[in-house]
Amino acid sequence: MSSTVASEGQKAVVMENTSRRDALTEIEKKYQALWEVEKPFEVNAPTNEDIAYGTPTDELHEKFPKYFASMAYPYMNGVLHAGHVFTYSKAEFTIGFERLRNKNALFALGFHCTGMPICAAADKLKREIELFGEDFSGVPAEAEEEVEEPKKDDKVKTDPTKFSAKKSKVAQKTGRAKYQFEIMQQLGIPLDDIKKFQDPYHWLEFFPPLVEKHVKLLGGKVDWRRSMITTDMNPYYDAFIRWQMNRLRELGKIKFGKRYTIYSVKDGQACMDHDRQSGEGVLPQEYTAIKIQVTEFTDKALEHFKSENFDLEGKKVYLVAATLRPETMYGQTCCFVSPKINYGVFKASEDEYYICTERAFKNMAYQDLTPVRGDYTSSAKVNGSLLVGSKIHAPLAVHEILRVLPMETILENKGTGVVTCVPSDSPDDFVTTRDLFNKPEYYKIEKEWVIEEPVAIVNTEKYGDKCAEYLVKELKINSPKDANQLAQAKELAYKEGFYNGTMIIGKYKGEKVEVAKPKVKSDLVASGEAFIYNEPENVVMSRSGDSCIVSLEDQWYTDYGEENWKEQALECLARMRTFHNETKNAFEGVFDWLKNWALSRSYGLGTKIPWDDKYLVESLSDSTVYQAFYTICHLLHKDFNGQEIGPLGVKPEDLTDEAFDYIFCRGDSVENIPVPKEKLDVMRREFEFYYPLDESISGKDLIPNHLTFYIYCNVALFKKEFWPAGIRCNGHLMLNNAKMSKSTGNFYTLEQLVNKFGADATRIALADAGDTVEDANFDETNANAAILRLFNLKEWFEEMVKNKDTLRDGAYNFFDRAFDNEMNQLIEETYKNYEITYYKAALKTGLFDYQYARDFYREISLSTGAGLHKDLVFKYIETQVLLLSPIAPHFCDYVYRELLGKGSIHHAKWPVPEAAVSNELSAALSYTRNLQRTIREAEGFALKKKKGGSSEVNKDADCSLAVYVCSSFPQWQAKYVELAKKLYSEGKFDDMKSVKAQIDGKDMKRAMPFINELKKQLSTEKPEEVFNRELLFNELDVVRQAVESIKKAPTVLNVAEVQIIAFNNGSSTGKNIINDSDVDIPPKVKSIENAVPGHPAVLFKNL
């Protein structure tokens, strides 16, 4: 037994009596040991003897069906947690189901080690050992390493011309800020062993075997022969990546040049998604930096510069404002700075200086915009308040002289800290300008500095010439503090202005804004009045704790924006199975914005770029076609690290690019390949048999990078017949309806889950967690309930096997046939759910509903004295474990082998019903269940005490139960069924005016509820079923066969007599079909008056 303890809105199951769990885990351990010997998950492609090499792949797959599934391989800086396992389970369940479909089903799992996270952690340990000693005894008491937390900016809508896919976020699960050695302790590593992890390669030797061990505890259906680590530590994988890079470069996909990239100054290299502590998916954002010349500083500013020893003589000083809308610069009426920000004055050239934030100039210093790369030392500092009132000249502005004015809402961590003011088109600027004009004393400015009247620059049909003013009035925005309304107004103004606006001023007057914008930008840059400036869209923190910038880097990059390549990727996506429309839409969104991706890095683990070996291939770029390597690596090496040569005896150095070309069907020549052709053919067969990958399974957060690159690189490197066939994405996993977090204790590793609930119960809870791309929920109470469910099934199965000779045989009765039919129906439904990878639904139909069907059959058969039919009991046991085996394999293998004596469940096939599902039997069974419910409701009503204190029947006396079966519908209903059918076909059934207009006034009270019930039925049933009310079964025959069950249905009253009375609607007499006698129909009994075919009335009375 267990109990549930609620804590801070989340539930944690406390295991108390674990005897049932322990009984199940004993079975699990036994079968895991058996599988270790039998190796049922090790599969191979057909040999040349099975089917000749060179056979077309479609013929090969027709004769030998296969299924190849893979998940995004986990990163080896720790063990698997519940989130990993949720994604992993989708692949597991798929493979189990495909094996039942008689397919050669392969699931391989590698270990990702490329990149900087492992190196960064190893370097931290080195520093901590230097500081505190190898035993860490010198660590300060209660000390915590301070980690800078990135600030969360408010959501800011940027350029409306740029598609913005929803970016993923790397979830931080390290709890409170800790030293690295403490994090290692948290992973279960003994203190004495932690010093070994100073060597980054030790991580690669330690964690992969541990992950293998944990996955085996779950009963993983993995072919471990095909596992490998990445990086040059595995020379075979290293050769594979070098081949991939060489071929992509030859195809023109990899290029060299200056490209804007997210960059860590601390690490000295590009910081790609897997190198980030936060900010995954964030890209460079391009701005037009407007140079606004200061023509006259305020006296306070001049005095300050003098005190800073900054001489203005012979210098041009510019306030630099970053804008996404250069076409609106005609409408500038001032320039805003924040009195809360201390700005820097930075040397930009021999005689030009920029005023902006240090963060902004740091970005510029790495974008070839400054005299010395990387130097962002300021010549002077100045607070924004000292600049307020200075005279300026702004490019393109209608007004020759403008002023610097204060704006307190400017963010220091976004843009340059300087903001242009265009009140005609920016709601923020309009409201701030109005506020400044109305309250100059409050802001300590002169009123005449404020230009109140906006300059019209863009006309839109919807908002006129001054959209900002229009929207501020429309949305009733009264203050710069009305943040939500301003955000809404800003988005409306940007979209309408860009897509539907026309320029009404300047060189491009009369042109659409979307046409004029790039022209204005180009003119400003060409004239030297502006320059292109980039910064990260949002805060990006590297794993080394560095706040990243955008750098213009000479680098190797993959050109994913190349148009022909994109068309190929779209073609692949169109023919691919994506399981959810949201997944396909997300990919299309990424394809729209994805352009270049930095390929090279100088720090971390990985494969060296073959033609430029001072750089490594970054971690997302060596993880695009590794599934192809799964198909052959068991033939190349015996261990994860590629140190033990595999069964073919091929050495890493023999795997030339030409060898891989032959293996992966890119060429047929074997000239100058050191590997013998017969060995190449064995590997080629493995690839062409298992490829394409039928299903790549991953969290949806990898769509913007890993999964998109997977599509692109596969279509570039392989023939069309080998292009990816399917991608299944799932949402994130919550735990007990709360976000997983170590700091709150709401967190489990795979090992912890299995230790607490056992493997099969954990797997059932994972299946029950959710199937869509929305966030799923692992509920511990479901895992705990699964223990009880499996244990009770085990006990009952064992009892049935032990007592099988006492079970009934011979001809089937009605409930036998109905149970058999319901099993067949649920088998079909479960198959369909597995086929579309809806495992929660498969669990419902294949376990919960299946067991309910058994329970009803058992209850009805035992209560009537008929007993259980042996054939059906054993059909149920066998089919139950087959249906459940993809999800709970240990329990199912135990039952299949030891109780049924049928051999390994892993070699079993999906059950095929002997007969087609009978809709007549299904409807009849549903009717009998509803009748039982109706009887119990009538019993409750009969026992309910009335005002006088007594009930209709005395529970201590025998009584009779009468079932009134009506054989016809009321005539008035037939009339309105036809009316409803007609209106539905005309599309007018939802128009209540049309409906009411055709109902007779005298029928209104009864017809409207009836029509509403029809409407309700149409929401869940097919129209032909709703409007054709003829029953699929003979109601009297079914009731006659169910007499004994009807008699036993009441739970309190003792039924001594059952009457089944057939009558026509409105009739005063009927016939008792049990003794063929005529009986009077009680008058004015509402339930009898409402009885119709399929819905009988039930009455109790004492004898």
Automatic annotation (TrEMBL):
What sequence ranges are listed for the domain Methionyl/Leucyl tRNA synthetase?
A: 70-131
Annotated GO biological process: leucyl-tRNA aminoacylation
Task: Provide the catalytic activity annotation.
Answer: tRNA(Leu) + L-leucine + ATP = L-leucyl-tRNA(Leu) + AMP + diphosphate
Tell me which InterPro entries the record gives: aa-tRNA-synth_Ia, Leu-tRNA-synth_Ia_arc/euk, M/V/L/I-tRNA-synth_anticd-bd, Methionyl/Leucyl_tRNA_Synth, Rossmann-like_a/b/a_fold, tRNAsynth_Ia_anticodon-bd, Val/Leu/Ile-tRNA-synth_edit
Q: Give a yes or no for keyword Ligase in this entry.
A: yes
Q: Taxonomically, which superkingdom?
A: Eukaryota
This chain belongs to the protein called leucine--tRNA ligase
The organism encoding this protein is: Pichia kudriavzevii (Yeast)
